[in-house]
Amino acid sequence: MRYALYFAPEPASPLAGLAASWIGRDAATGKPVQQPDFDGMGADELAGITGPARRYGFHATLKAPFRLADGVNERDLLQTMDRFCASRTRFAIEGLKVGAIEGFVALLPEGDLSQLNAFAGDVVSAFDGCRTELTESEIERRNPEQLALAELRNLMRWGYPYVFDCFRFHMTLTSRVPDKDRDRVLRAAGEHFAPVTGREIMIDALTLFVEPEPGAPFEIHSRTPLASGLHRKTA
């Protein structure tokens, strides 16, 4: 089993609902969701480009998927989440916009990102004692020869290349889209997410996802609010 620490919206929120419709699955319930048709892009094509996003569930990666270290169990991880979240207060980002990052279509943050980036770095370091070291095969799957030096150092030290100065908050919506199709997909995503883009988004909880077995869809295990005195909500 692998665990991951993500930002994900409240499952009952409009953003979560639109995202589940776009990728074709609700990670809170595990159930498939019918995908929409757009002018110039049907549901079948959308299903084809959202396969990886559907498996991982709608999220922004904070602590990438990891296996628990020897001597650490799920209860230990949940207790670490409780302590961490009780010590952090919720905050807002200006909004989200549809855009492209490294050829992937995603929701990207707007405005001052300093607090968001600092929070993401805190998650990486605070939970590192919970994860076991990567295996050689796990390292190879990251194509280390293609990484920049800072990314490679992050991979070897923190288990993921894109942390700290290499971190870019994004909520992935597709696999890599060919250049010739990207504008069309961006238009469809812009239309679909128009009700929630450009509006303030609260970073109000840390969400624990689990991969029950290799290759299985990730599911929401629980969502711990970033506020003292509030309790974890179990999906």
Can you tag this structure with a few keywords?
single chain, 235 residues, alpha+beta, Cyclic Phosphodiesterase, Chain: A, five-stranded antiparallel β-sheet, three-stranded antiparallel β-sheet, 8 helices, 34% helix
Strand order of the largest sheet: 2-1-8-9-10
**CATH homologous superfamily annotation:** Cyclic phosphodiesterase
Please state the average pLDDT score.
95
Listing every helix as H and every strand as E from the N terminus to the C terminus, the arrangement reads EHHHEHEEEHHHEHEEEE
- Count of DSSP strands: 10
Strand content: 15-25%
Q: Major sheet: size, sense and barrel closure?
A: 5 strands, antiparallel
Structural class: alpha+beta
* Rg calc: 17 Å
Describe the structure.
This protein has helices spanning 14-23, 43-49, 51-56, 74-86, 114-126, 136-141, 149-158, 179-193; strands spanning 2-7, 60-66, 91-93, 95-101, 104-110, 171-176, 201-203, 205-211, 219-225, 233-234. It is α+β, with helices and mostly antiparallel strands and 235 residues long. It has a single domain, classed as Cyclic Phosphodiesterase, Chain: A. A five-stranded antiparallel beta sheet has the order 2-1-8-9-10. The chain is globular and about 50 Å long. The two termini are 18 Å apart. The relative contact order is 0.24.
